[in-house]
Amino acid sequence: xxxxxxxxxxxxxxxxxxxxxxxSPEQVIAGLRATTEGGAELTQLLxxxxxRLADSRFDPxxxxxxxxxxxxxxxxxxxxxxxxxxxxxMQRQGQLGIWVPLLGQEAAQVGSGRALRPADMAFPSYRxxxxxxxxxxxxxxxxxxxxxxxxxxxxxxEYGFHPYTIVIGNQxxxxxxxxxxxxxxxxxxxxxxxxxxxxxxYFGDGATSQGDVHEGFVWGAVYDAPVVYFCQNNQWAISExxxxxxxxxxxxxxxxxxxxxIRVDGNDVLACLAVTRxxxxxxxxxxxxxxxxxxxxxxDAHTTTDxxxxxxxxxxxxxxxxxxxxxxxxxxxxxxxxxxxxxxxxVDAEAxxxxxxxxxxxxxxxxxxxxxxxxxxxxxxxxALDAQREEYLSYLAxxxxxxx
Amino acid sequence: xxxxxxxPVDTQSASTQTMTIGKALNNGLRAAMEADPKVLVMGEDVxxxxxxxxxxxxxxxxxxxxxxxxxxxAESGIVGTAIGLAVRGYRPVCEIQFEGFIFPAFDQISSxxxxxxxxxxxxxxxxxxxxxxxxxxxxxxxxxxESPESLFSHIPGLKVVSCSNPVDAYWMMQQAITSDDPVMLxxxxxxxxxxxxxxxxxxxxxxxxxxxxxxxxxxxxxTIAAYGPSxxxxxxxxxxxxxEGRSLEVIxxxxxxxxxxxxxxxxxxxxxxxxxxSEASSEVSLASEVAARVQQECFYSLxxxxxxxxxxxxxxxxxxxxxxxxxxxxRVLHAVDNAxxx
Lengths: 404, 342
Known about the structure:
Chain A has 404 residues and is α/β, with parallel strands linked by helices. Chain A has helices at residues 25-37, 67-92, 106-114, 129-134, 139-147, 156-159, 170-184, 211-222, 253-257, 269-284, 314-321, 325-335, 341-363, 383-397, and strands at 42-43, 121-123, 199-204, 227-233, 236-237, 240-241, 261-265, 290-295.
């Protein structure tokens, strides 16, 4: 029986076996449905229409989320989206070299990010601007990466947020190692939960094909490391659909490694928050690792250099717009009487101010001086590198007025 | 072979033991683990087995499974998780079983390990040591006899060293571990258990700095620069040349990145002739880099072009042919003749 959950062979005598490359018509339909709906095992607590669904397993993880906290999550997502859109626009105006939009993934990032405690550690890929925001990193510190004045601005230890990792999948191994260290340090399974820590690592559906992600799963599993593998399945790895990466839903891969896997509605901030809290809790108590597949959608291009019209239909985007992660919270807040129009207007005004500050900062960012090329390559700088630096700087100084 | 001239030792001292390179590496690891509880050893078969070359022999028994980790069989995983552990505050020492198996880890080494400090402008450091048994001459199947050190020496942010004797093996291991920079230690596997190279190691001595080369035999006819497994070849050549009345100066490069060529320049300015010996292929190699820098710094002192005696520019051959591939006494002496007869 073809199903969206797994490519299967037809009954004996029913013709040639379907493959991922040549699926049966039923599988095509089932797959399309899964692409927009996430399948039967999707954990969802807030529907696209803003209806709150009761969930006996995960509701306990939202016990503290009152109206004020929900308004806070709404505000987070609006600010992050506004900053994302402003940054995208600044790239179009030539102020950034490139931008990596997160549009559509605000709930996955804010929900999972807000589930972390200060002592936890997060390892991002390069699209996790929303997670960075929840870790307290100034959005302006992200701009240097994309304006190409710096490779990484923040102190990872201070914020519990590792530098962005651009090589696909590398960070999953680094995170598994860090989580092994947390375990070796006795930060797992303590009776007093405040002594416990966990690690979360972010990657996409495309990254799941990387060897480093596989190895990261193996390491975390055999060392019982407190690591949450948070896969944002945004359906597209630049131009390649998730079907090009896997025959079966990504969360089901966890079973092969011997730890739990769960698919959550990545456009549902409450579900992302609750499920990530649960997963981190499992890790802190020695039941890690856990794989979360946040089923979401990249509503914009891969980066500002990409042109999605070459490989996907606008109908798909229109279908996903109906599942917008922010709109469903707004509707829920309004219907439940948890927020008035003044609140929404106030958040919008705050977002505009946030964007204006970002723009002002970006336009005035200075280029780094040439000596920056040579700084902090080594803890103990070789004499030959010092000599190379001095030679180049004196060469530069030889130009009239010091200008090259 | 002669012991390094800069390391005179009192063989009567209680702090001095005579040992092989393999044992010295083991003792160096042990000393580093005793000095710092954050030092971890990780790799394939490094625990119960003690490593396929026994360099980590007995460490798991004495320090426990939480300090000596028998890892899953995946090199990128070893280095990638070591980086995470280093960010957490540990000082992992990774063993890559054979140099031919390091390439799955090349990405983590080049993209993450070498660049974390630079990327964060010093906010993160990655004090990881990667031990790599390298070189040929052991009659092995493919991928067990290669010399990829030039590839790693080319990567900014990494440091690369190689030992050729027990004294350096003992100290370089500890110096690499205490370094805040990532260090790759290329260990001459052919020499691990050579009883001919056994030497007294004084554990109370003051070692040479990690990133320094060293004159190990004085001479004035020509200079030979070598490292790791090629060093005994260079010294044998010098001994043979002595019988012909030629006095060769031999320099152990020791540090491959950064190179420390001051002693080489000083020597070439006296001898006017340089032969560089390495098992690695010569094209775009460390031997080429030494030649380039020597012609730049010693242009007016050179009496002959710099000679390179290296492996050929081919993949490593079937081991029945390796004696042709590897620099030996005769090829080194032939190169010396070429330099002197120029």
